[in-house]
Amino acid sequence: MVNARGGYVSAHYGWRWIFWGLSCVQTVVVIASLLFLPETGAPIILDWKTKRLRKEGRKDVISPMETGHTSAQIFAKYLLRPFKVFKLMAKLTKDALYKSNRLYYGCVRSIMTYLTEGLTR
Fold first, then answer.
1. pTM value?
2. Where are the alpha helices (DSSP H) in 37-70?
3. What is the pLDDT of residues 68-115, one digit of tens each?
4. Residues 77 and 112 in one domain
5. Whole-angstrom distance, CA of residue 27 vs CA of residue 117
6. Are residues 47 and 95 in the same domain?
7. How far apart are CA 10 and CA 24, in angstroms?
């Protein structure tokens, strides 16, 4: 059923409208998810519970989100982590970049070959 609708939209309005339609649907789904789906992350739920218990008068509770670190320390820790992994796995990263670069140029070459063959006919 979806394929038939996609074919109809593509034939009558152009293939770009399929992506516009999907973008609109995705926007509605994301907004509905943010509004109606409950939070399921355990640290966040425990943080909410900690705040609620403190409002009720209990001062001895500590949330797992309260690490004692400043925002700058947390940001630096998580910002620098990929670079530490990159440093530790330099050879693997070099090989992955080399292979992805070859794949990219292979795809570009295939597309350009296909286009030039199509234009010369």
1. 0.45
2. 42-55
3. 888 888 888 888 888 888 777 777 777 777 777 777 777 777 777 777
4. yes
5. 39
6. no
7. 16
| 89 plus 111 within the same structural domain | yes
- What is the arithmetic mean of pLDDT over 7-26? 86
Whether 120 and 73 share a structural domain: yes
Provide the number of structural domains found in the chain: 3
Residue 37 backbone dihedrals phi, psi, to 5 degrees:
-85, 140
Are 114 and 88 within one domain? yes
At CA 44, angle to CA 62 and CA 77, rounded to 5?
80
* Token pair for 70: 């400043």
* Same-domain pairing of 1 and 26: yes
Domain that includes residue 55, residue range:
40-65
- Give the separation between CA 75 and CA 33, rounded to whole angstroms: 27
Dihedral sign, Cα of residue 65, residue 70, residue 75, residue 81: negative
pLDDT at residue 69, as a whole number: 82
Maximum Cα–Cα distance across the chain: 81
Query: DSSP readout, 98-110?
Result: HHHHHHHHHHHHH
Residue 64's nearest CA partner among 76, 46, 82 is: 46
